[in-house]
Design a protein that fits this description.
Elements (H helix, E strand, L loop, with lengths): L2 H30 L3 H31 L8 H28 L3
InterPro entries: PTS_IIA_lac/cel, PTS_IIA_lac/cel_sf
Keywords: Magnesium, Metal-binding, Phosphotransferase system, Sugar transport, Transferase, Transport
GO molecular function, one term: metal ion binding
Length: about 100
């Protein structure tokens, strides 16, 4: 895989992970205002983007490498993987908070 191909894949992954993360923080803001239905809706939107980012990671990076294709390492790849991991972790945490708080009322 060329650096140019890798860069395109990474930017697509970053775009989806970042958009998903934005929805996660919108969900958190709604939950803080006790709009749990709105917060849950934002989490569902976040999941769409994070699922696409995860698909990109698996199908376009991990699977080719598992088949023996060399994936060049660079900081953009590191950033893409880090952003996806952080975004999924934050989504899980915010979703847990929403579920806990929405059952309190």
């Amino acid at each position: 895989m060329s650096i140019e191909e890798l860069s395109k894949i990474c930017m697509n992954l970053i775009s989806n992970a970042g958009e998903g993360r934005n929805y996660v923080f919108e969900a958190l803001e709604l939950a803080l205002r006790e709009d749990y239905a709105g917060a849950k809706s934002k989490i569902l939107e976040a999941e769409k983007y994070l699922s696409e980012a995860h698909r990109i990671q698996f199908e376009e990076l991990m699977s080719p490498q598992a088949r023996g294709e060399e994936i060049p390492f660079n900081l953009l790849l590191l950033h893409a993987m880090d952003l996806l991991m952080i975004s999924i972790s934050e989504k899980d945490l915010v979703d847990t908070i929403i579920r806990a708080k929405s059952t309190d009322v």
